[in-house]
Amino acid sequence: MRGRAFRGAAVFVGAGGEPRPDRRRPGTSEMTENTAGRLAGADLHRPGFYDRLKINRNWLGFWFMLPAALILMLFLAYPLGKGFWLSFTDAKIGREGAWIGIENYEWLGLPWWDDADNVFWLSVFNTLLYTVVASILKFVIGLYLALLLNENLPFKALIRSIVLIPFVVPTVLSAIAFWWIFDSQFSIISWSLRHLGLLDHNINFLGDPNNARMSLIFANVWRGVPFIAITLLAGLQTVSPSLYEAATLDGANRWQNFRYVTFPILTPIIAVVMTFSVLLTFTDFQLVWAMTRGGPVNSTHLMATLSYQRAILAGNLGEGAAIAISMVPFLLVAIMISWFGLQRRKWQQGGQDD
Amino acid sequence: MTEATAPRPHLTDASEGMTYLDTASRRAVTVYVPLFLIMVVLIFPFYWMVLTAIKPDEQLIDLDTYNPFFVVNPTLKHINKLLFESNYPVWLWNTMYVSVLATALSLVASVLAAYAIVRIRYRGAQWVGAAIFLAYLVPPSILFIPLATIVQAYGLFDSPMALVLVYPTILIPFSTWLLMGYFKTIPYELEECALIDGASRMQILTKIILPLAVPGLISAGIFSLTLCWNEFIYALTFLSSTENKTVPVAIVSEFVDGDIYRWGSLMAGALLGSLPLVILYSFFVEHYVSAMTGAVKE
Asked: Does the keyword Transmembrane apply (chain B) (predicted)?
């Protein structure tokens, strides 16, 4: 909103959608161009090449963008391209690869092929399961927690700070704590359940495939909930209480208040937050690597951990890159969802925004 | 609407919303109990980390004699061992200086980029803004393999400098996006005045914009620092020798042996690795929250 107001002001000084500066007077800044420039003319001050670099809008933009652009080109765009290229080669650690076409992908195969790479497809299954289950749980619990935090509470600021702690503690370090909590012999959960009389043996949390998956999902949800809760809380705080009062006067109950007032207003921010959450969960690496390293017997490998194992530990860079690149289609779907979520947001705010 | 018959002492106070409709017991069941339970679950692993770090070994593995939820005769043995008999201080130092350098580098680059996109409005600035948002969405998990070969080719393998150069690819998109939001809120008129008075763009940026955007800079800086500290996959891939590792990588790779007594020092390591961030966070909660929500809202 405020951005638009400034854009209005910006037009006055010749920014935004105005025609580009006249080429015959390249050195004039936008101030002189619109005020003094027209009066004094260009003959009084004809800037040299160096001045042009300093003052011309596009050159100036170029210099300002240079550091960020260099870093992003060298370490983001170039590796992304190289990742695609590597996935079509048989590169190994310490050896440049030769182009082998789609052979790496053929090795991965399709799930219904007899000679498909079962471990890879298991990792795809695990990744989807992990993403879907953890994202739904994170969303439900996160939204619930946000609604709770939006109530009038004593020590609200303190409670909010405490809620965020799981997000601040580095993931690997909290994963190590979970590793200990899920220890097969000394797990505090097993101990508590045994002493409550609910169980007569220790639970093998990380040694059994399904238990390990559930444990990882739990740890992921634990870490992801605060982020979702706090961002949704920020969205909730923008909802005017008078809307609820009006709805209540019209006879809406609590659920209807939530369903027809809170939720529609929150939808755009939910779309963005959940896209980020899905992206991060889908490409998760550190939690799994710290807790199970893909075990037991590959049953908790995600695509990211499998590609690390194949590319870095086993040295088959090409094969690992093919697995990593296989994540891209899924990510594109998530980004599309984000895009449409943002579109809707702009539409709700009543205009196009950049 | 039966609750409407409850006393309404705060009816005139608009900030109370409609809570006057609730009775105390209803609030206890619908708000306080669930909130308390969630908070306990969220805090427990951290409590467990602290508790394990100060527990003597025999209490750690003897759950029958001692109640595992508490500690008798706490000890600093694990922390001592970590600080004075291991490489832990080196790892902590590595983490810290990589994080600080990478954050500083990306803040400088992001300030310049965000200012150029929002206020210089060079040709195609909008598209660059969109491209930076897309860069935000490229996950490290698909970049670490090609980056490993590139880092090797640049001769930076097993050097913390590789991390200093690579981490900004995560931080710059985020910080630029956040700072763009802050810069947009600064009145354009201030810049006009400065331009009329003959200030250059660089002077405007350093003398007018930056002082006004300090909260944004702190938000971006704190959050970037946290992201660096937390980063794992690049550090795991690029660093191989013990003395170059960062805390998260070292904890996972150096401590993990079959020792049944390892838990005390593992948890002490996790605790010491988290504390700097938690302390920093406790001072800047508001900035932290605005960084988190700002990046989503803008």
From this structure: yes
